[in-house]
Amino acid sequence: MRRAASSTSPGIPLGVPPAVVLSGLLAILLTGCSDPPAPRIERNEGARAGSAYVALGDSYAAGPRLGPSTGPVGCEQTSGNYAHRLAERLDLELTDVTCGGATTEHLTGSQTPPNGAPVPPQLDALSADTDIVTIGIGGNDGKVFSELVTACVGAATKDRAGAPCTAEGTAFRAKAERQVGRLPTRMGEALEAIRERAPEATVFVVGYPHLFPEEGTCELLPLARGDYPYARDLVDRVNDALSAAADQAGATYVDVAAATDGHDICSTDPWIAGLVPAEAGLEYHPYAKEQEVVTELLVDELR
C-alpha cells in the first residue's frame, strides 16, 4: 500500500554537496522524458475455462487425416489436431482457421486450398476478445517444404548418392535460402499484427517437429544421400527464425523439435509419416502422437 505523502519537506540531507543533488534531479527528469519501451505481446497467467482461443497455421497445425474434417474443403483441418485437443482439455472456446498449404502471406490475405473455395485471411479470426493464440506457420513460404518432399525426392531418382537438389547453385537451394532469410521479418510482422488485433491475448509460436534423422537415410524419406544434411539444417533454421521472432515480440516459443527428438521419419518409433504412412496421417506430416505431444507442451505453458 502506498503511504500518504508527508506534508513536511524532508529538505536536503546534511553533508550532501549541492552539485550531487542537482545531478540526481537531472537524472530523474531525463529518465521521465525518455521514450517508452515498444509494446510487447502480453503473457497472461493461466487459461480460464471458456477462454477464446484462435488457432492459426499450416498443415502441421491443421492435423491432416487425424480425424473428422473440421475446416473448409481442401484445408485438411481435423478434430485430431493440437488445437482441438487443447480446447477440449482446457474447455476453451476454439476458432480454428488452420489450413494446409498456408503461408505467412495467408495470415493477411485470402487462400484458395485445392478443390476448395477461397478462405478469409487467418488474422480475421482475431479480435480484442481473443485470450489465446497459437500460430504454427512459415515452412510453406515459397513452397520450400512441399518441394523438398516432392521435387527433391524426384531429383533423387537420378542421383541417389549426390546432392542433386541442395548443392550450391541449385534452384531449390537458392529459393530456400531466400525464404529462410526473410522468415524472421515476416513472422515479426505477423506477431505485431496479432498484437494489434488481439492486444490481451497470450501468444504461442509453435515450431516444427524433428522431421529428418541426425544421420543415415531410409526408404520412407527417399531423398538423395547428399541432400539429407541440408534438409535437416533447413528445418533447424526455420525453427530458429520462428524462435527469434517470438522472443523479439514477447511471445512464447514452443520447441516441438526438442520434444520430438528421436521420433523423426526414419526412427524406429516415428511420430511423422513418411512416404507411406503406417497409420492415420498424411505423408510427411504428423501422426496423432506428435499432436498429443504439442498439446501437452501447450497445456504445461498455460498452466
CATH class: Alpha Beta
Calculate the mean pLDDT score and round it: 89
Q: What's the CATH topology name?
A: Rossmann fold
Please name the fourth-level CATH homologous superfamily: SGNH hydrolase
CATH architectural type: 3-Layer(aba) Sandwich
Structure description:
The protein is an alpha/beta fold and 303 residues long. It has a single domain (41-302), classed as SGNH hydrolase (Rossmann fold). It is 36% helix and 8% strand. It has helices at residues 18-33, 59-62, 82-90, 144-148, 151-156, 171-197, 228-249, 256-259, 288-302, and strands at residues 52-57, 93-96, 132-136, 202-206, 252-254. A five-stranded parallel β-sheet has the order 2-1-3-4-5, sandwiched between helices. Helix 3 crosses helix 9 (288-302) and helix 6 runs parallel beside helix 7. The model is unreliable at 1-45 (pLDDT under 50).
Provide the fold topology.
Layout: H1 18-33, E1 52-57, H2 59-62, H3 82-90, E2 93-96, E3 132-136, H4 144-148, H5 151-156, H6 171-197, E4 202-206, H7 228-249, E5 252-254, H8 256-259, H9 288-302
Parallel strand pairs: 1-2, 1-3, 3-4, 4-5
Helix pairs in contact: 3-9, 6-7
Summarize the structure.
Helices cover 36% and strands 8% of the residues.
Task: List the defining traits of the structure above.
disordered N terminus, 8% strand, five-stranded parallel sheet, 303 residues, 9 helices, alpha/beta
